[in-house]
């Protein structure tokens, strides 16, 4: 029998404080960006709502239930991997965080903009690596022996939640913020990426729903305050994962498809073409007459 680990008040305090500081810096940065031009206000709401979902998963009363109900654990997993990361990534587009940091700390971010770090980011956010990281984290932490490790140890429980969040950011980064990588994958491959991502989730959730025994026996000793048996709790957790992941990935795929199929138009009605980067040192503008400029 494994004693349940109750969520500590001090842990909730530090998590809440960190999220409040992150929200403050972000909103401070948004105000700085707004003074320099128009910004999309909904991105601020997306970012703050994503932080709220992280708080619900890790520092709210829900966090105290994940050792009593598998459904509560599954809600945490979905919030940290499936819902919060894309909302935060959507809100981070732009320079909000750079403006939000105090001037004395902005120099810390300069090494992150180096060519070496950009290459490292391109490798880390490669779709194949992101897919395997998310799928591997999902499968490994739901192996019964590893799952029990997270219940026995507060440290491993924290590692589990952190890995859900980190791999969630990795998984959504090619979808929300696609980057150029060495393989030059076409944008349409993201649709296949999202479809394949549903497979490990479907297998795990289907197993939890249709299994005729309790996979994690520790929940047999949990109090049944909501009237669910342990097997019904397991089936509810599996069904919740199955439904939520399918709906979220379907919405993301629909939005991505709509963006691919609808060409961007300029104010004059002509199609707006992408402008490739160029090196201005290799271009010389030569005036041949008052009405003509030749580039060589």
Task: Provide structural commentary.
The structure is a single chain. By secondary structure, the protein is mainly alpha-helical. It has one domain. It is built from eleven helices and two strands. It has helices at residues 9-35, 41-58, 70-92, 96-100, 103-106, 115-124, 127-141, 144-152, 154-176, 189-210, 230-261, and strands spanning 285-289, 292-295. Strands 1-2 form a two-stranded antiparallel sheet. Helix 2 (41-58) runs antiparallel to helix 3 (70-92), helix 7 (127-141) packs antiparallel against helix 9 and helix 8 (144-152) crosses helix 9 (154-176). The protein is globular, with a radius of gyration of 23 Å. The termini are far apart. 25% of the residues are buried.
